[in-house]
Amino acid sequence: MKGKLALVTGSTSGIGLGIAEVLAQRGVNIVLNGFGDPAEIERLRAGLASRHGVEVEYENADLMKTDEIEALIGRIVERHGAIDILVNNAGIQHVARVENFPVDRWDAVIALNLSAAFHATRCALPAMQQRNWGRIINIASAHGLVASVEKSAYVAAKHGIIGLTKVVALENAKTGITCNAICPGWVLTPLVQKQIDARAAADGISTEQAKLDLVSEKQPSQEFVTPEQLGELAAFLCSPAADQVRGVAWAMDGGWTAQ
After folding, report:
1. Active-site residue set
2. Are 204 and 84 in a shared domain?
């Protein structure tokens, strides 16, 4: 994979950053994308580049806007010829019962979690097809395979991304382009850590107990998935060993969806 170029959306923290780190370890040049403090993002960018001796760029395109996605892919293809590895990871969440779900929040979740992946894929595919090589990895969720209450938009989007994954894989089945989805369970990201801290404070229990209570609700292993583990799976899907892994929704969820 050395010398390949990967665009990882939503990669300024959490899962996306973990995947970018592992790909950079393999010698892949990285384009980071996401929001955050500019100084912190520059620290992340420079750190990745210096640790692994790869080129690391940053693009702040707003993936809620189709024209910005099109411009983002266009700029990268113009500079590099193609995006070799596209990791569609950016996403948001909102929790409410269906009858109370705000319409604007439904639209936002679908736009970022599903439509953005479609637009990035459709824009990146032509250059991949010209080279007859590419890897598209969609970060779905255990909620792409099963449902939970009060997460209608997220579950719908993640089920949709798995369907999109299968279609893209089939349409490119006779090429060197593969498309697969990774379905994480609970991952200990900064966002989840905030939930743990809030739960500990509300229930008057230790952070460790709150962490165990949270993960045990879904994952029989009682352990969180790590961004680094997801990165290693992504790296495998980019390797020659995965040439015939096509259209798969690969769960990494501590046994959640095995139940």
Report:
1. 154
2. no
